[in-house]
Design a protein that fits this description.
- With about 375 residues, the protein is an alpha/beta fold.
- It folds into 2 domains: about 140 residues, Beta Barrel (Lyase, Ornithine Decarboxylase, Chain A, domain 1), CATH 2.40.37.10; about 230 residues, Alanine racemase (TIM Barrel), CATH 3.20.20.
- Helix 7 packs parallel to helix 8.
- The radius of gyration is 22 Å and the shape is elongated.
- Bound molecules: pyridoxal-5'-phosphate.
- Pyridoxal-5'-phosphate (PLP) binds next to helix 9.
Length: about 375
């Protein structure tokens, strides 16, 4: 029987969310919430597929936004909306405070600038603090690297008038395990616990990859419960993005041509830079269904995107059979930090978005047209 990714009802290219896998992730997060009393909210920056927000809303407590438009979208989940941005403009604040329950400022100056408009709207205010504790492997994703612009350090916080500050927000992790969360919490406690008695909430940011195979959930629960036992008055929030959509579906592409230059290169109907930019930015090697490292299987190819960028190309993969024009290539785990980052670069066709329902039925949610491309430009 052909694999579901070859279903002709699925156009190419297409991001396909596997509903059952998303539900499994959400259920795991619900278990963590039930076992610890922490609230988990979705970081929209990582996964904003709003056609699934009703599902998300069944299990999580809301969303966190990086800007006004994400805040508006987060409201579609219902429940809590948080926001953090490196800097909010005064002109956008009246609208933002209509959307959010909590807001975290990146500097004391921003807090002072916006505190009146927040107070009038009954928005709970927090500060993003920087524990200068490094856990992220990738410099691009390390908010605690020396010289980071993200968050107020303990030294900078000393002596500030923090009246009306109700929470602290810390984001220090990226695709991390529970032991990194434990170390981060220790660093936060060491540097900032003297402020805790005056706070109501503590947002521990994202990067908690609790849905990854092998993640030690019991340990996370223990760490969070120990922390909560020490500070029972604090409302603890986690805001993962990747973990919500981790391994919940592929990007399906198709081979359009095969060219030769120091070996065969299959040209696809997607663009790496436009449709999975983290592959080049991070960088990382995406998994491809039925493919292995170069030369492990009989036929080795490079895979190229359909844009003019010379570097729009993936390293070598090997396959059991020779590749053919028209054949599908299935990039695994392409739900997080993909759809939210795509562009219409070169006017390359933007992948459609679909959902593989739990019963195996495919629903095409959205296709993109020339008008969408036109609408991004003027
Ligand atoms: C402030 C903040 N919160 C949450 C997240 C989500 O992180 P992740 O998708 O790694 O869980 C990020 C990611 O950059 C972030 O910057």
């Amino acid at each position: 029987m052909p694999h579901w990714t070859n279903n002709p009802a699925i156009p190419s290219p297409c991001y396909v969310l596997e509903e059952a896998k998303l539900i499994a992730n959400l259920k795991l997060m619900q278990d963590v919430q039930n076992a610890t009393g922490v609230d988990i909210i979705l970081a929209l920056k990582g996964f904003s597929m709003w056609s699934c927000f009703d599902l998300v809303s069944n299990y999580l407590q809301g969303g966190t936004a990086s800007a006004l438009w994400e805040a508006k979208l987060a409201k579609r989940i219902g429940k809590q909306v948080h926001a953090f941005s490196p800097a909010f403009k005064a002109a956008e604040m009246p609208e933002i405070v209509q959307e959010v329950d909590h807001i975290s400022f990146n500097s004391v100056a921003q807090f002072l600038l916006h505190k009146d408009v927040c107070a009038q709207a009954n928005v709970s205010m927090g500060l993003r603090v920087n524990p200068e504790h490094q856990e992220a492997d990738t410099p691009l994703y390390d908010p605690c690297a020396p010289g980071s612009r993200l968050g107020i350090t303990a030294a900078q916080l000393k002596g500030q008038d923090l009246r009306d500050v109700e929470g602290f927000h810390i984001h220090a992790l990226c695709e991390c395990d529970s032991y990194a969360t434990e170390r981060m919490l220790n660093a936060i406690e060491t540097q900032f616990s003297s402020y805790f008695p005056k706070l109501k909430w503590l947002n521990l940011g994202g990067g908690h990859l609790m849905t990854k195979h092998g993640y030690n959930i019991e340990h996370l629960v223990r760490v969070l419960n120990n922390f909560k036992a020490k500070y029972p008055h604090l409302h603890v929030i986690l805001e993962p993005g990747s973990a919500v959509a981790w391994q919940t579906g592929p990007l399906i592409a198709e081979i359009v041509d095969i060219v030769e230059n120091n070996g065969p290169i299959a040209i696809l109907d997607i663009s790496v830079t436009a449709h999975m930019p983290d592959v080049l930015e991070m960088p990382y090697r995406p998994s491809i269904k039925d493919a292995q490292e170069a030369d492990e299987l009989a036929f080795t190819y490079r895979l190229g995107g359909n844009s003019c960028l010379a570097g729009d190309v993936l390293p070598e993969y090997s396959f059991a059979e020779p590749l053919e024009v028209g054949q599908r290539i299935v990039f695994e785990d392409m739900m997080h930090y993909t759809m939210v980052k795509t562009s219409f670069f070169n006017g390359v066709q933007h992948p459609a978005i679909g959902i593989l329902r739990q019963d195996g039925k495919f629903d095409l949610i959205r296709e993109f047209t020339y008008e969408d491309f036109l609408g991004r430009l003027s």
